[in-house]
Specification:
Strand content: 5-15%
Shape: extended
Distance between the termini: 43 Å
Number of strands: 2
Structural class: mainly alpha
Radius of gyration: 18 Å
Strand order of the largest sheet: 1-2
Largest sheet: 2 strands, antiparallel
Order of helices and strands: EEHHHH
Number of domains: 2
Number of helices: 4
Amino acid sequence: MLHVDSPFPPDTPKHEDELIVPARQLPNWLVRLAALRDPAIRQILPELGVHKNASSAKARRVLGWAPRPPQDAIVATADSLLRLGLLKGGAKAGA
């Protein structure tokens, strides 16, 4: 199954004005079917069924690193996409 999860941890407080991204699962057969028509989806086929465990524990422990709050990261990403002109209505850098 291909998992598409919300960027927010389950314990993130919910506010009325926040958009909540639902988690969805697509069966592998549906992803493979879509890959027949879409090269971008075809690129993820080798990842189907592969479970990866990743953690920021070492970065926190060794470097004292702390991630941005999810809401701040999303806003910073949107600002960058707009600044680079990668979204409709965005101004290209240097323009």
